[in-house]
Amino acid sequence: MLEEYPDYHDDSLLLAEIRKDNTVAFDCLYDRYWEMVFAVVSRRTGDTESASDITQDIFLKIWAGRNSYKINNLKAYLLTSARNTVLNWMEKEGRYRPVDDLLLNLQEDDEQADAVILRKEFLYAYNALVSKLSPSQQEIFKMRYDQGHSTAEIALRLNISRKTVQNQLGKSVSQLQEQISLLSVLVFLIIF
After folding, report:
1. What is the pTM of this model?
2. Topology of the domain comprising 2-93
């Protein structure tokens, strides 16, 4: 790959050339980093078609903003962009991963000391937030986000209407929205 672009071994030179509208430099950036970005996005979405689209969008944004972006560390920029773009995609698509799945990913990742500490801190903070909900909200919230059940499944299991489940979830999420967002970002940072 680098043999095709002998003048672009350094990312800062590559970015400087892209700012000059150099399409060969952009092709080099794309060839060098597309696979890495796709792998990260694909792992998070679990959907190769969406991952491919998201990855393309990330590179298109770099090209479109080539004259305005100030990128110091290209690899870090791409990983952050991948994380943020996937988070936006998940929100837009209404896709949420059950907390158990996130924790399983945490266990599969490096068992470095900081990952273990962060996992424990996350669990403590998550449980503290959920415990502030009413008992019925806790049950519904845990069934939806810890166990990954749909609102229809929860309604059937609890013998209540789906609308009641949706209302309880809406109240729970509204009550915890800011804190849950912070926890989600923490988990996403840990497992990325």
Report:
1. 0.50
2. Rna Polymerase Sigma Factor; Chain: A (1.10.1740)
